[in-house]
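Please predict the structure of the following assembly.
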Amino acid sequence: VTAMHFADRLAAAVRSRGTPLCVGLDPRWDLLPLELRTRHGGGSLQAAAGAFEEFCLRVLDVVAPLVPVVKPQSAFFEACGPSGLAALQRVLHRARQLGLLTILDSKRNDIASTAEAYADAALGGVLLDGVRHPVWDADAVTVNAYLGRDAVEPFLRSARRDGRDGRGVFVLVRTSNPGAGQFQDLVCDGRPLYLHVAAAVGRWTRELLGQCGFGDVGAVVGATHPAELAVVRQALPEAWFLLPGYGAQGGNAADVAGGFRADGLGAVVSSSRGITTGFPAADPRWEEAVLRATHSARAALSAVSKIAQI
Amino acid sequence: VTAMHFADRLAAAVRSRGTPLCVGLDPRWDLLPLELRTRHGGGSLQAAAGAFEEFCLRVLDVVAPLVPVVKPQSAFFEACGPSGLAALQRVLHRARQLGLLTILDSKRNDIASTAEAYADAALGGVLLDGVRHPVWDADAVTVNAYLGRDAVEPFLRSARRDGRDGRGVFVLVRTSNPGAGQFQDLVCDGRPLYLHVAAAVGRWTRELLGQCGFGDVGAVVGATHPAELAVVRQALPEAWFLLPGYGAQGGNAADVAGGFRADGLGAVVSSSRGITTGFPAADPRWEEAVLRATHSARAALSAVSKIAQI
């Protein structure tokens, strides 16, 4: 058995910070503070990776007292190659040191031993000659379930490894992009595909419920689709939701209101650009802008997520 | 415009080697030749990455004269962390030097600028201050289309960048795992989901056909599902197919026969474990076993893919 259930860890973190706000770490060269671009230089991917790392570490220092969880986006680190992924590893490590939970947003998917390799890298640690080695060592990872149950199972096994705190898996259900409906809204047997995926998430998450009543398999539902969010919440009362698309992508506090349980738990709302790029590039006091944006998002969300203290 | 269309590059490569065989590079610690495990040691992920790299480079030297394309599986390199991904980069580089086409099997998927980051890393090069930097620099990449058209478009843009040879995108249509049908076979508007994805691949690939009659967006269809393969081929005459699951996963030559056009083109058949692990771990002459397995798979496939020379 795991020491502490992932859902309970997430509930405790949300309660301790008093907000469901998750800060997305999506470093992009053209949107970094000018100060960092100038000092690191943009002449190589290695240099850019160094700037990404410094930027994310400084954002972590600002937001760590104020939010329960951060969500690094794997793609932007991968865009700097191996040195970018070394930066990702250090950013994840620092987030844990600061007491933050981490959701690695990498939307991984594959089958059998290949899925196991992704899962163990993200969550459970990679086995070499009987010893487990942590790679990304995140608290949760996002996965794409198009390949079916046997492609998701290795992630569940890795998340539920015995003898340590449990980890979580967030399955893409209804994504936040404008074209999400092309396949996700196709109606099969009387309901859209995304509700078939939601039903599968429900079965998986009910296998292992925490004391808070939620399981360790969550659902990614775009904050930009309030109607679908309400439908998925009804279909899936036992799952934590990860709601991306808040802020820069257009979702607001009212749009995510349907994601929460009455006690304010059940959803984390991720904002990336709204928090980490909401300042002129030349502003030398950009960390103050990050702080203001974090407080502002917390305040907006407090109107729709009244987190009960226990 | 691109210098040479991806579909024509793939057709030329298949014709030049006289086979549709693709060698999958899926390095796993427990299946490496004992010689390599002993020499590199399994005490750290860095050591394992070194063994993975040497193994793959030696496999490349054996198979390069005999096959048109190789398919490194990103997950196994990622399992060794940043050093594993540095090894992947060198393996891809060496494959290109040896005249092989490369399909990076990473099943990436995301939206908007995030998808662009994955796509540019895989295919088109990442832009920093006006200069493009190659990262994985593969000839093609596998993607998961659950998120819809706007999530696939950044990959198409990156593949079709002007002024150089075109690259390709292989979209997961019907995967090779036993549970593939859980979502992919759900019937929507009278046909299974995977045929909706196939229809979208058809629209995308017809945007840019090569002289060989195929486009630059292909379909991944498991070699383990011959009936579905025939249906997808009929629905999608203009797409190159990538057929994984040949060999160790159970697909045989007869199972993939329905994937080819009359001139023997139109599909590449990927074998990983059947070629790179078909020997006792202690065999010091394991490269001869790789060579024999490659010849054997070529011979088996020659019965179902008669490649016309032009």
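Chain B is about 45% helix and 15% strand. The longest strand of chain B covers residues 101-108.
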